[in-house]
Amino acid sequence: MNLLCNIILSLIFACIATIHIYWAFGGNWGKQQAVPTTTTGVSLFVPNFFSCFGVGIILISFILLVNYGDLDFIPQKIYISLLIIVAIIFLMRTIGDFKYVGFFKKVNETNFARLDRNYYSPLCLIIFILIIVKLFNTIVNP
What we know:
Layout lengths: L1 H23 L24 H20 L7 H20 L15 H30 L2
Helix pairs in contact: 1-2, 1-4, 3-4
């Protein structure tokens, strides 16, 4: 089960990291749909090189954590703590800010809100569940 979780999480993180790095270097495909907007269509933020590249690198580090954390590079307690932190990050993204992102958002009429409801938030929930399954397997079968 751990191997299956590793493969699925790695594929998800690799795809999302690739998209963010693509955006960092000037790509535009999907960028507009990935930024929350107000009901009047104003973007809440403008992603720049550093934010896109930074998110891409962080997602790549998640791939390394998921796959190589079981080896003795990281002490078991630190590894489990890092996995819990990553799981909490994706749970928080799933829940959202109660206004523009997440399952409990108030602004539901925008294109981003539709995509977030149908794809982004469910994907974050799936990532959270996979990390919890991995954590359970790591703790039960050290």
